[in-house]
Amino acid sequence: MSNHPPKITATHVNVWYGAKKAIDDVSIDIDQDSVTALIGPSGCGKSTFLRTLNRMNDTVANARVQGDIRLDGEDIYSPDMDVVQLRARVGMVFQKPNPFPKSIYENVAYGPRIHGLASSRSELEGIVQTSLKRAGLWEEVKDRLSDSGTALSGGQQQRLCIARAIAVDPEVILMDEPCSALDPIATAKIEELIHALKGRYAIAIVTHNMQQAARVSQRTAFFHLGQLVEYGATTEIFTNPREERTRDYITGRYG
Ligand SMILES: Nc1ncnc2c1ncn2[C@@H]1O[C@H](COP(=O)(O)OP(=O)(O)OP(=O)(O)O)[C@@H](O)[C@H]1O
Ligand SMILES: [Mg+2]
C-alpha cells in the first residue's frame, strides 16, 4: 500500500434521507497513491457515500450526514470549511457527462478563472491546454476550442469533464460510474486516463463493472445495504474475499 498517510479518512459515517438510513457506520481511508473502487448492488449507497467526501450531499434537500471525514487531517464538515474551495480540492465526475453549454475552452477555463488561478490570459490558456492534455483530449480538440462542449461525443464530453475537474488543480477526483454511458472504446480511453492520473491525484471510482474495478483499482470497497462489508487490496477482494456476501456479488450471484 501507500507510504503516505491516507488522503481522506472517513470514520463512522452515517447518512440519512429523511428517516431512511442510506449509509450505516462506514469507515474508510482513501489512499493518496491508489485508485479506490467502490462496488456493490444498486441502491447500496455508493453514490451517497462518494458524495459525503466533497459535501455534495449538502445540495440534497433531505440528506443528513453524521461522522468524521478528514482531508489531509482537516475536518471537511467543520463550519470553517469553504465548501466551494473543498469541491475544487475534491473534484467530481458524474455518470452522465455534463459539460456547460459553452465552448470547449470555456468549460475548462471557467473554474481556474473563478478560483483566480491564472494571473494572465496566457497563463489561463496554459492551464486549459495542460488540463486537456492530461485528460487525453487535446489532440482531438486543439483546432476547435471555440466549438460548444456539448457538440463533442459522449466519450469526449466525459474527458472534457475530467479536464474541467483537473483544471482547478484538485487533490482528489471522485468518479461516479464515469463510463456507464460510454461505448467500449471510449471506456478504454477513460480507463487509460485513470491509470495515467493515478499518483498525481487520489482517485475513488464507483463502478458496476467488475472487470473495470479489477483493471483500474488497487483497493476495492464492497458495499451492501448501506454498510461497508469488506475493504482491501483489489486482488484479494477479487480472488480471495473474506465475506460470503462479497464472493456472491463478484461472482454475479446477486446484484
Ligand atoms: N435524494 C434522495 N432522497 C431519498 N433517498 C435517496 C436519495 N438518493 C438516494 N436515496 C436512497 O439511498 C439509497 C442509496 O442510494 P445511492 O444512490 O447512494 O445508491 P447507489 O449504490 O449509488 O446505487 P446505483 O448503483 O443504482 O447508483 C437508496 O435506497 C436510494 O433510494
Ligand atoms: Mg449510484
TrEMBL record:
Chain ranges of the ABC transporter domain: 8-250
Domain of life: Bacteria
Gene Ontology CC entries for this record: membrane
Record-linked InterPro entries: AAA+_ATPase, ABC_transporter-like_ATP-bd, ABC_transporter-like_CS, P-loop_NTPase, PstB-like
Gene3D superfamilies associated with the record: P-loop containing nucleotide triphosphate hydrolases
GO biological process: phosphate ion transmembrane transport
GO MF entry, a single one: phosphate transmembrane transporter activity
Signal peptide: none
SMART domains, per the entry: AAA (SM00382)
Keywords: ATP-binding, Nucleotide-binding, Phosphate transport, Transport
PANTHER family: ABC TRANSPORTER I FAMILY MEMBER 17
Protein name, per record: Phosphate ABC transporter ATP-binding protein
